[in-house]
What does this fold into?
Amino acid sequence: MLIEDLNKLKEDIGKEIDKVNYHIRKTLADIRVKVFGKSGSLTALSKGMRDLPNEEKPKVGALINEVRSFLEEKISNKEKAFEEQELVEKLEKEKIDITEPSNDKVGAPHPISAVLDKLTDICVSLGFSVVEGPEIETDYYNFEALNTPKNHPARDMQDTFFINENILVRSQTSAVQAREMEVRKPPFKIICPGKTYRNDSDSTHSPVFHQIEGLVVDENISMADLKTMLTILMKRLFGEDTTIRFRPSFFPFTEPSIEVDVSCPNCHGKGCQTCKGTGMLELLGAGIVNPKVLEISGIDSKKYRGFAFGLGLDRTAMILNSINNIRNFYRNDIRFLNQMK
Ligand code: PHE
It folds into this structure.
């Protein structure tokens, strides 16, 4: 009886599996449960072994095993074939038609990225390494380590957004200077590009803007090194006939501090609308690193000195592309962006 039932099951289910086609492939899982599951038909028949006389058990046991592996193999062969077919279909669907004509909307780097790339290339060619730091920064690295204690009036110029008393979005990439000086051994030359934040908003200021910071620490650094470096940078950025001018300024983390102007690349110093008739454009803050800052970061200020500069990328991109409103950078207006290619 049992033997007949088993052979019948083998035949019936075998046929059922044969009938499953690609479109109803999920029914294979149902068949599996129906046959091999807890209350499946083969499971039920296997239980019948208990009532057989001992001498028949090996024969029936072998048949059960044969039926089981026959059906299992049949199911898994089908499943494998369907998987392969599925892959072929997927590949077919995702095929890229390279003969399809392309549209003319070719992208281009954003003007700010373009300036950043250019400046990075120039600085790397001069031996600088590029480092990045966090945009969400501690009050310590953004101010304290840069010799700007709480209540220092210089904080006024950099009113930024505080998350709590000690955490803020950085108002200057100089914060990365402070971080790097703690971990690097002089001599070193780094640039730190990135987003910065201030509570400022008009046609030339945006609450989110971009800076690139340069820092060189070595023995015997002087203003002459800073001037040479900035002259090279500005000439490569704006053109060989560019000149620069230093004006005294104040930053708590540099001493002496300077403001650096460049000759207007638009009129080459003659005076035009871009430079409001002055022939020069204010572009950078810079100076000799205050020995106090070196000491705070654990660098021996008797042995080492440094120079640093910080430049606004948005302003530079505005000058290079004759843009009069900083918001154009953030509006994502395709008519504006198309002119920047
Ligand atoms: N961090 C200064 C600013 O954002 C610029 C600066 C950088 C000045 C490095 C001196 C040295 O205004």
